Every structure is written in C-alpha cells, then in structure tokens.
Amino acid sequence: MKVSELAKAAGVTAETVRHYTRQGLLTPQRDPDNGYQLFGARDLERLRFIQRARTLGFSLKEIADILEQADQGDSPCPLVRDLLAARLPQIHARIRELQALADRMERAMNDWSRLPDGTPDGHSICRLIEQTPDTPDECCAPARRNA
Q1: What is the pTM of this model?
Q2: What percent of the chain has pLDDT over 70?
Q3: Which domains does the chain possess?
Q4: Which end of the chain has fewer CB atoms surrounding its CB within 10 Å, N or C?
C-alpha cells in the first residue's frame, strides 16, 4: 500500500501517516523501482494501534516506547498500566481546575450582565475584566453585598 492507501484504510490523512513515519512509529519498505514508501498489513495494524493509544491520551513518545517494547518481544502492558496510573491523577486535577475556571466564568458572566459596556479611553481597555479580581480565590468567593 502507498501512503494514501494506508491512510484511507485507517481513516486518517496521508499527512498523519507521513508524520508517524517521520517519528519512526511506522517503518515502510521502499519500492526499489521508484522509491515509494510501501506499507503492509503490519503497518495498518500498527497505525490502528497508534490511533487507539492516542484516544487513551498516550503521547507519541509513550506510544514509541510501547511499540519498542513490543518489537523487542517484551509485553508493554505493565508500562501501559504504569503510564495510565500516573496520568489519571493529573487528569482528575485538570478536570477540577477546568471546573473551577467554568465556575469563575459563570460568576463573571452573571456579574457582568448587570454592568454597562464601556469604551476604551486610554485608561481602561475593558472594565469588565479590569474589575475582575486578580486571584481565583477572590473571584470564586461568594459575593459579599453591603446591605
């Protein structure tokens, strides 16, 4: 198979195939007559594996390490488990950060709905942002209103 044929069979772009080839994840043979890269069924299998690994959040470097272990005849499964076990707490922390950001944005939108639009005057760019507290803690604390 040529690059475009492999790409079509795997449902990716030809540029994706070329990129993975440059990264050493795919190792095509060369046609001796014209120098074209030729891919076989093994390359298609590896490409599909790479796609699945990407959907699980593995980096190309991690995928290269996994493939290298497999190519050496060693089971990469312990490495895969270790990588995910290390990554999962980071993902949960990032989700908490994003949820806090979404909460700050919702509060800001609610607060800003009562404020007029301003015009930049050389001293101010956008008062909505300028009146937002600098720290997330100030922004996310319950609003205190003087009664």
Answers
A1: 0.73
A2: 91
A3: 3-72 (1.10.1660.10), 85-140 (no CATH)
A4: C
